[in-house]
Amino acid sequence: MVGGSADGWTLHFYDFRRRFVSVNDVVPGLGDVETWAKRNGARDGTPFFLDPWGRADALVNAYWRDPLVRGRATGTLRRYALSLKVWLDFLHAMGIRWDQASRSELAAFKEWRLSAEKNPQHVSANSFCVDRAAIRSFYLWAAEQHGIDNPVRARVIATSWLGGGQVVLESTPSGMRRADVKWLTPQAFRLWRNLGLRGFTMEGVPRHDWRGATEDRDIAFVEGLFGTGLRIGEWSSMLTIEVPKPGSEGLVRSRVASYCAKGGSGRPFWMRRRVAQQVHFYLQEGSRTAAIARAQRAGRYEQSADRWVVERVRRDGQLEVVDATGSRRTVRLDALGPSARMKLFRRGRDGLEPMWLWLNHDGTPRPKHSWYKTFDRANTRVAKALAQVGGTPLWCRPHMLRHSFALRWFCIATFVAWRRTDMLTKQEQRDFRNQLGDVWFLLATLLGHRSAEVTRSVYLEPFQALQVEELIALMDADDRQSLERLVATVGVGESRVLTVET
């Protein structure tokens, strides 16, 4: 298990890639701890709580092993576990057992998290609602399984005299935002990337003290987010066999596995050739090969207690693997989540090699949550560089790159539709768009949204009223040149479109 501790409760997360220490000298006859943990429902990443006196709380830990709970996304489990720890620590400071908490304690918790003077770290209303969702989920389970009262209550607010009503949760804070959406233009992204991840100065040259041991990895990762629109959990869980090889086409295609996609809905995605080239360089020639060599020399992969060696990748998406005990099995690639993917290996010329694409400097798989540290460090470097010249503040979070991807393609789709229908009558424009489909459905497909309304109202709402010329100004030179060539191609054979040979 790995994790951190603080005053109050202690939170760990199971990591079955590491070997468990025998405790027979402490608890004679207990046997293999790892076997016991797995038999009790623990998986890679399952939270494990110790109370303030160092004892495991059976009910709290049983919640995380419930099949309906452990089936959630790894990131959700981790975020909910951290929220529950904050709640348990608060109750401990109040001198109240978690199974005796009431609505009053929840109200006090809300005040403490959002506005109490004695709390030096207030959170946003949206963050508190995540905490409340974690608490509510835990107590719904505890109420059903053990009859414990749920401090998070729901009430109905009447919305019409006919009896209509809306169910809302108590302790909902004011100032809730539907979404915190921000964008980077291509120019702003390049500046952030160069200052934060390439060690450049504002003059565009590398700093003399810049080391950049994993620069190619970090650049490929953020360029991938910016160039594919994938969520960080989807992009960070890629395997080497899922990376498309760069060819002559401007866009290459791959697929997000269902178990790694939000909502369990796998889908295709497209990657610009330049991004594919950067990822391919990291994979074949960059720091990844050096990281693997270091791990092989240290025997790190051979010592992995829970590894699957892939012997064959079948065309139907099935993997034939041999586990650490020598047993053979066949697994479906589309059904493997991040924790299972981290233990996939192949035998190379110099020994075992991980199939997980993104690796730490020591050759171990780099999980999703570690990438937030990369962004934090980059933001610190950018802030320092801009402060020295009095520049406008600039920062980036992973999901901002997804928003920025959407903005880029919105500009492209709007421009193409505008140029394609510019000389048509109003009726012809309506007929054309009915046949071609709205740009929002294109964007929803690229982003993996089930509803185009989410794309329209959340991701790109501020840009809907902009004129085409203003949208073009948001694109970089490469996009504008490509669009001109695209429009010329679209206009071939159309008598009303005048073109010249180039």
From TrEMBL:
GO terms for molecular function: DNA binding. Keywords: DNA recombination, DNA-binding, Plasmid. InterPro entries: CB, DNA_brk_join_enz, Integrase-like_cat_sf, Integrase_recombinase_N, Integrase_SAM-like_N, Tyrosine_recombinase_XerCD. Residues 55-143 form the Core-binding (CB) domain. The keyword Zinc-finger does not apply. GO terms for biological process: DNA integration; DNA recombination. This is Site-specific integrase. It comes from Mycolicibacterium fluoranthenivorans.
